[in-house]
Fold each of these.
Amino acid sequence: MKRGMFFIVLFFWGFLSNAQNKELTPVIIIMADQLRADALGDFTPNINSLKNEGIAFNRAYCAVPLCAPSRSSFFTGLYANRTGSMINPFDKDDEMFGNTKAGIPNMYGLMETDWDSHHVGKQHFFTEEKIDKDPASKTTWITQEDYSAWMKEQKKSKPGGKQYKDYAPEIVSGTHTQLRAYSTPNFGQYKEGVDFFLDHYIANESIKAIKNRNKNKPLLLNAMFLAPHPPLSIPEPYYSMYTTKDFVLPDNVGQWYPGQSPLQMYNLTGFIGSRYNREQWREIWAKYLGLVKLLDDEVGRVIQTLKEEGLYDKAIILFVADHGEMLGSHSLWQKMCMYEESARVPMILKMPKNYSFAIKESNELVSLIDFLPTVLEYNHFSNIPKMDGQSLLPLLQGKSLNRKSIFIQYDGNGSLGSSQRCIVKGNYKLIVDMFKDETYLELYDLVKDKKESNNLMFDKNYAKLYDDMIHDLISYMQNTGDRLTLTKDISMQFLKKYKNEIQKSDKSQ
C-alpha cells in the first residue's frame, strides 16, 4: 500500500472508531518482558496490590512466545499469520517476516488522535511504515535509543556485555545455518547502580509522561519495561537481595523429560539451556527474582504517580508480559517454545473504579490479542476493525466467551528457522515442533500434569483427542494463511517414527 493511501486508511478508521457519547477512559499498559507467570507472589507486592483491585486471568497466553511478534499481535488483536510479524527481524534475509504489514490498524493509529498517546521503553512493535520514526505520528516515542543517548551524556556504560552472551546456531530462511550471539543465564553485578538501569529510566520517563500529559485528553501510556529479560546484569541491592533459600525451585527445572521434543536442541532454548544443572539453575533463579523485584519497585513508582495525579481510579490499567521465561524448566532457557513457563503470561486488568465487575479471577482461555478489542468496546468505538481477539467485557460480567481454543505459533528467533504450532483446547495442549523435515508431537493434560512431564501422544487412549486437535490446528493454519502446512495423518507418521516411545509408555502403564 502506498504511503499516502495508508494515512487515508488510518484517518478513515480513526474517524469511524471515535468513541460515541461517552467520556473516554485513560488507558495505562504496563508490560514486562520475559516474566514467568509464577514469578508473581512474594517478590511482587506492588503488582499484587494491583491484582487485589482488579481481575487476574490465570490462563492468559501470548500469541507468539517471542518479543516482536507477540507485541505485534497485542497491538493489532490479530494472530501472527495475519500480521505478518512472526520473528524478530534481526537477519536481513528474513527481515520482512518481522514487520507488521502496512495498513493493518493498530492501537496507536486507532487511539492516538483522541488520546494523549505515549510509548515509553522497549520498542519492538516493528511495522513496515516504521510508525515510531514517522513525523506524522501523534504518539510521543521514548525508546531504547533515547536511553542510549542519555547514558552517553551521563558517560555511563549500559547493563550487559560480551560476558553475558554466547553463540548458538540459527537457521536462516530454512536453508542455511549461521552463528548468532544470544544472552545466556550468566549473571553479574551492574556497577553503575539502579539510577542508570534501563527499567529505572523507563519508570522515570513514564512518570514524566503522566505528570506532563495533555490534560485536555485522556492518557494512553504504554510503559514497556525490559525486566526481567536478560542480560542478568543487575544493580544492587537487587543483585544480592535473594539467596537460594528464599524460594522453592519448581520440580521441572533442570529436567529433560521422556517424550519431550528433541528438536528443541536445534533451538537456542535447548542448545544453551541444557548446559546447566539443577543447582546452577537455583543460583540463576535467585538473580532472576532480584530482577523481578526491581521490576515490581519500578511498577510501584508508576502506580503511585497515577494515584497522585488522580488517574488511578479513572483508568483501565493492564499489567502483562509479552511472554514468559523457561529459566531451566524442561532444561530450557529463554522462551521460544510452547510450555506453560514460556507461553502463559501474567495478565491483570484493573478497571475504572465506577465499573462493576462480577469476577476477581478467571480460568477461561484468553490471549494477548483480546486486550485491544476490549478497550475499544469499553470506549464505545464504532466499526471496530475485524480482529482474532475477543472483547473480555462479557467475561468480566460473569459470562463465558464461548471460546473453544486458542492458538500459538513460533517461526524462528532472529530469522525463519525451527517452527512450532500449538493449540490449547480445554485442559489440553497439543504442540507440533518442526525442524527441517522432522516433526515431533506433544500432548499434555494441563490440569493433571501441570509441569508437562507426560507426553500423552504415546497413550493410545488419547488418539481421538489429539486427532481432533490436529484437525482444529490445521483449520487455524489454513484460515489464517499460514506459510506451513500439516498433513491429516501427521500423528500416524509421528508414531511410526517413534514407535519405541510407544513401547516404553505401554510398559510403564
Amino acid sequence: MKITTERLPESRVLLEIEVDNERLEKAMNQAYRRVVNRARIPGFRPGKAPRAMVERYLGRETLLNEALDRLVPEVYEEALEQEGIDAIDRPELEMPQLDPVIVKATIPIRPRVDLSDYRALRLEAEEAPVDEHLVDETIEQLQHRYATVEPADRPIELGDIVRVDLKTTADSDVYFDHKDAEFAVTTADTANLPGLAEGLVGLSRGDSKEFAVDVPEDATGTTLAGKQLTYDVQIHEIKVEHLPELNDEFAGMVGEGYPNVDGLRAKLQADAVERAQSEARRRYEQKALDALVGGGTFEYPAVLVEREIDRVIRENTSFGDKKAEMDRYLAAIGKTETEYRDQFRADAIERVKRSLALSQFTDDEGLTVVAGDVDAEIEKMVGDSGASAEQIRQIFGGDSGRDVIERSLLTRKAYDRLAEIAEGKPVPPKSEPEATTSEVVIAEAAAADKPAVEPRAANASPEMGDPSPAPESTPESS
C-alpha cells in the first residue's frame, strides 16, 4: 500500500493510505467466505453459493463493506507503525474513493511543548502570615465543642440552640422546609437565611411566628440577594450552651490532653504556623506553574480540551455521562449542549496547558520515581492508617494503586524542583532531551490506547465516534 503523511496544526497528522488492488481482492475473498455462510441464496445450501452469485444476489457493495470492516483497521494500524505515528485518540476518517481504495485519517498526536528558558524563572517568596486572633478563635471553637447543653425555660436569646419546624419561601418558591431543625441562633449559623436569627429572638417554647425579610441586592454569603423571604416557624425547644472555663482542666480534656492552657496555646500556635506555611508553599508552587505556562508555547489537539470538559462535567454534575439526564437539564436551563460545554472551555484550556507544562518540565528535568519510592510511600500510608492498614495495603498494592502513587510522587517531585528553581536554589544539571514526551503526558493529559477504527462508506462523514474519555486527572490535581 502507498502511504503519504502531512503535518497539520494543533498536533495532528493527515495520513493518506492507498490500498492496492491485490490487498483489496484478498479482503473481498475473506469477506465472501464470512458472508456466504450466513446468506440465504435461492438454489444453494448455506455456504455453497459461488462468490459471483453472492455478489449478484446481495450486491458487490455488501461484500465491499464487509471487507472494509476488517481492512481499514488493519491498514490504519500498519500505516501508524510504518510511519512511526503515535496516535493519542481516534482518527477522523474519510474514504474519498473506492477505486482504488483511499483512506484519509486525521490523527491527533502527542502535543508539542516548549518551556523556553524556564531555569531563569525567579519568584519572590510567599509570606505565611498567621492571624493573631486565630488561636483565640480556635480555643473558642474548642470550648463550643466541649460545651454542655441544657433546656432553657425562657425566651430565645442570641447564642441559644433551638429545635424548630421551619419553612422558608423566597418570592413564593419554597426554599427550605424541615421539621425538627436544630441550629444555633447566630448570624454565622444562619448566614444562608438572612434575618432569621433576629426574628427568632424573644420567642418562647410553643410559639409560632410568620415574618418577612427583604434581602438587600448587595447581600453576600447568600444566594437569596434581592429576594423577599418569608419565614414560618414553630418553636419546640430552647437550649442554652454552657462553655467550659478556660483553665488547665479544660486543656487536659482537649485531644490527647495538654498539661496546661499555655501548652494548648503553644500547640495551636504551632499548628497555625504550619498550616500557614503549607498554604503559602502551595500558593508559591501554583504561581511558579503559572509562570512556567506563561513562558511556554503549546501545540495540542483539540480533543484534549474536550476530554477535560468531559471530566469536569462528570465530576461536578449528577448526570455525568447520562445523555438523557443531560438533555433534560439543558432543556431546563435553556441551553444547547455546545453552549453548556463552552462555559467550561476557558478553564479546560488552562488546565490542559498546566498539565502539559508540568509533564514537559518533568521530562526536561529527568525526574523519575523508582519502585522503592512507591514501596516506601505505601508503608508510610499503612503505618498511618491504624485499623485500616491491611485495606490500604490491598488498595494500593496492585498495579493500578501503585500507578496512582507513582504519579502523585512524580508530581510532588516536579513541584519541588520547580519551586527550587524559582527560589534560585542550586539544582542538578538538566537531563538530555529525549525524542518523546514523558509518560506523564500520556497518563495524565493524553492517555488513550489506540482504538479500533470503524470504516465508513465512501464520502461518509469523517468523524469516527466520540473522543475517548477525559484523563482521570491532570498532574496538578494528582
Amino acid sequence: MFALGTFADGGDAFAGLVVDDRVVDLRTALGSDINTAALLADWPDSLERLRQLAECDLGRAMPLSALRPLPPISPARQVFCAGANYITHLREMAYTGARGAPGESRPDEEVKAEAEIAVQNFLAAKAPPFVFTVQSSALSGAHDDVVLWGPGSAHDWELELAIVIGRAARDVTPGEAMGHVAGYTIANDISTRDVMFRPNFPLSDFLMSKGRPTFKPTGPYLVPREFVEDYRQLRIRLKVNGEVMQDEAVADIMFGVEELVSYTSSVTPLEPGDLLLTGSPAGNAGIHGNRWLRPGDVIEAEITGLGSQRNTCVPDPRHRN
C-alpha cells in the first residue's frame, strides 16, 4: 500500500510518495516541476509509476512525522461538499432543530417524535443529493491551526470522507462513477453555525460559515482507490481535547460515492484533482450540548486507513487583545 501527498520540510512544497510512514520526494524521480495535480491529470499512468516506485528501495525517504502535510492536491482545484447525507446525522439535526433555543422546555419524547416526522418527510421526498461548493482557499493541512474567524462563535466540526477525482466525468452513471475516482482522503468541514443563516433572509451563507481560510483541514494524503476495498466499511472518528465526538461507520451514508459522483457530474464537469466531500456523520456540536470549538481546543481526527489529523484551534487574529 502507498499514498500520495504534498509536503513541506521547511522549504518548498513537494509531491511525496508515502510508504510505511516514510515519504519519498518525487521530484528526484519525476522531475523538479512535478506536483500532485499533474499526477492526477494522467492518473492511470501515474498510478503505475507510483506503484513501481513504491516497490523500489526507499533508503532516501524521510519520516512522515518530520514533515508538514499540506492539502494533498496541489495546486488545488474545485471543492464540492455534500450536506445532510448521513441518516443518523439527519436525525440529530432534526432533533436539535425541534428542540428549539436554549432555555425552551419541551418533553423530550415530543421533540423526538417531531424530529422523526421531519426526517421521514425528508426521505419520502426522494430529493437528489444536496451538493454545494466552497472555495479552495479554505483548504489547509492536516496539522495546521484552525482559525476561529468572526463574526460568529458557534464553530463546529464535521469530519468527512473525501473523494479525489482521477478522470474527467460528465453525466456519468452510478455504475460508471468509480472509474473516475482516484482515491480518498480526509476532510474536516469546519462550520460556523450562527452565521449560516441571515436574519429574515431564507438563504444559507456558506461563504461566511464554511469558506473561511483554514476551515477545511484536508489530508494528510490521498490513498488510491484500489487500497480501499469497501469505503462503506471505513470508520470516521473525531475527538476534541481527547473526548470522542464522532464515531460512525460510512455505512450510514445515504448517497454513496457512486451516486454523489454521478449527480455532481450531471450538474457540472468534474476534472482530475477535484475534491468531493461526502457529508458528515453524526456527532456534531449541537448534539453535545452546543459544545462549540474554542481557542486552544485540539481536534484529532482519523478515518480507517487514510491517516490522521491534529489541528489546534486559534482565535481570530484580528480580534486578539
Amino acid sequence: MSGKPFAARPPGAEAWVQDQGDRPGARPSPFTARLTIDVTPACRGRIKIAAFARGQTVADMVRALLDREFPEERA
C-alpha cells in the first residue's frame, strides 16, 4: 500500500460545507452530507412514531430540528 492518503482534507472548515440556502423541509440538494448518529432502539422508535404522526419522513423532521437548534449565522 502506498503512503498516499485516501482523500485529502480541505484547508478550512468552510470548505467542508457548501451553502445552498435550502429552506427547512425542502428536499436535500445534491450538495448534502450524511450524518450518522447512534441512538437507542427506544429513541429510534419514538422518532419514527413522531415523524409518522406528523406526516413527515424522519430525515425531514431531523433536518428541521437541526436547522432550529443550529441556525445559520449571518455575518
